[in-house]
Amino acid sequence: MCGIFGHYAPGGASIALVERMARLLAHRGPDGYGLHADPDGRFAFGAGRLAIIDLSAHPGILFSEDRQTAVAFNGEIYNYKPLRAALERAGHQFATHTDTEVIVHGYEQWGDGVIERLRGMFGVAVWDSTRQRVLIARDRLGEKPLYYAPIDGDAGREWVFASEVKALFAHPGLRRAVDPDGLIQFLSLGYTLPPRTAFAGVCKLAPGAMLICENGGVRTVQYWLPHPAKGDLPPYPDAVRQVRALLEETVAMQMMSDVPIGAFLSGGVDSTAVVALMRRALAPGQTLSTFTVGFDVPPEGKADRKFNVDARYAAAAAAHFGTQHHAIYLKQDERLSDLLPHLIYHQDDLIAMPTVVQTAYVAALARTGGVPVLLNGEAGDELFMGYQHYRTDQVLTRYLRLPALLRRGVLDSALARLPGGRFDSARKLPGKAALGPAGRYLTWTRILDFEQIARLLHAGGRADAQAAVHAWIDPLLAVPGTDDFTERLAVGNLIGFVGENSNMRVDKMCMAMSVEARSPLEDYRLAELALRLPRAYKLRGGDFKAVFKDAIRDLVPQNVLTRPKWGFNPPASDWLRGPLQPLIRRWLSREYIESVGVFDAAAVERALHEHVVEREYRLWEVWTALAFHVWHALFIDQALTLPEPLAAPDLVAGAVVHPPKAAHP
User: Fold this and answer.
1) For residue 218, which phi and psi values (nearest 5 degrees)?
2) How far apart are CA 63 and CA 49, in angstroms?
3) How far is CA 62 from the centre of its chain?
4) Assuming Cys at both sites, which of 21, 52, 308, 404 could form a disulfide with 294, CB separation 3.0 to 4.6 Å?
């Protein structure tokens, strides 16, 4: 099942409302949906199905033998077979072979503790009819989304929940408005942090959290946080072996499927390692399909050398492993203006990254190729420190260890006099050293700084934006419980960027194409091991992700292990100057910006002129303004109505698709 939704109302839940929610999430459950209204009348919920395990099972809600416990489930439970065996030994009888049913009987056996026994990705809702109790939960690293909203009804406080926000608005009592705090988070970070969303009154459940509704009240419980696990530190060679063992285990577990399964392949270390391990796990003679995305630009030109690096590495890796490789190349034309509103509609909450475009295209290619399940390499850089800013932050840490008198009296002024270019990092050290933890975090992760935000927003925006953002980030940085700021930075990125940006991009764009994405590197046991290992095991001998690379060194080609880090970025700056101009003319017009009343129209016009005409780099000012106003037109004032659902064949038809090639290792 791949989409869940429900309504709790003391005066009587509406099954008609829940059915409207099901239709709004049909893309997540193209193989049908099922609904259930409790006889008591307070609760109604449902689930759509993308059939992956036990294709003969009916879509919808699964029940216990006495029908007092019912479950709606989105995701996959990779350890469901051992859980099922344990429950059968305890006397439970199963009616299906689905992973969902272990949650039903697991709740009967272990209560809320069943959630902590699940190893997988999930958004789940459990209805306990006997206790008139609702439990909803999100997986530990946030691979699956889960949103909820309280609504004041005639008979008391009502609640709606769903895998996507759009389904919540099926309830006529949920008003459509912008959340000011969510907007500031979006402009600063590029995404929103739980419980905030960009929608006023709409919350999202945090990764590793449960929400329980009973006895007229609602409470949240954090059942998992990415704390470094306790225990003796293994010697480096043992750590390498432990990482390898867990990688093999989690990839093998996540290959369970009754439908064809493939992989995203970017040609980077993480996705290549996943493909290598998948290849080893396959039986002799089985083929593996891999998928990648590039851009239809003149070969050997500047854009090709900049934006098709991953596509070339992916092709080489596919040839090395002998996969059935599929590549799709995006055309740089005005069809992007038709496409982007669909993608913003499907991502629901505001996300600033233009990479949603590539993700949607590659998922569409897989869907039309008959492969509805794809493994990926998300979160490897956060777990094993794969970004340059982790190493740069180490330099800052060493600088801060110097006596303050020496830094302020001698070094700060000396560094300020250095020339630009290759000395930029050194010149910036004094300024970064003066920052507090949240400010230091933002120097590596922000989309826009607070001066840019103040210029863009109407009447200068929120005067306390900086204090507000710092107050949201400080709790993230406190989670690891360590004085090593680089480790705190990595965990903050894991909770924030991975949970609320990367995972939401992958889930929403893949589900828009009715494709299930799985992230083996986000297995919580692998994550706990990675968090336990010290920074010195990851940033080691001048290399990044050392312990991870050493764990897969015998599997991955040397040129992939040593390739420079290359961002998964599209030519979005050029899109704003050309293909997206029709969208800009409509939704960044002075008339529409002023009608919304959030951004300053003159400031947006200046940023547009500087970016498009003067060809200065104003990507993030323009992109966030455009994304926000298209989002506002879709969800808030509803000035924009999409003519028809987004379909995978339409994306593939508008791109250049290279015929799949089967290579031999």
Assistant:
1) -130, 135
2) 16
3) 27
4) 308
The 8-class DSSP code of residue 420 comes to: S
**Distance (Å, whole) CA 366 – CA 262:** 8
Is pLDDT above 80 for 55? no
Contact 485, 432 (CB under 8 A): no
Q: Which two tokens stand for residue 41?
A: 């009348």
pTM of structure: 0.95
On whether the CB atoms of residues 383 and 525 are closer than 8 A, the answer is no
Q: Identify any residues that bridge with 46 across adjacent strands, giving them in sequence order.
A: 5, 35
Residue 51 CA neighbour count, 13 Å, CB half: 13
What are the tens digits of pLDDT across the range 125-170? 999 999 999 999 999 999 999 999 999 877 678 999 999 999 999 9
Closest CA to 56 of 110, 100, 28, 97: 97
What is the three-state SS of 33-62?
EEEEECCCCCEEEEEEECCCCCCCCCCCCE
CA 573 – CA 307 distance, rounded (Å): 12
C-alpha–C-alpha distance, residues 515 and 367, integer Å:
6
What's the pLDDT score for residue 664?
42
Q: What are phi and psi of 206, to 5 degrees?
A: -75, 155
Chain-centroid distance, C-alpha 205: 13
617 in Cβ contact with 573 (< 8 Å): yes
CA 83/CA 633 separation, integer angstroms: 46
Band (542; pLDDT cuts 50, 70, 90):
confident
Q: How confident is the model at residue 53 (pLDDT cuts 50, 70, 90)?
A: confident
- By the 8 A CB rule, do 141 and 494 touch? yes
Residue corresponding to tokens 């903050």: 492
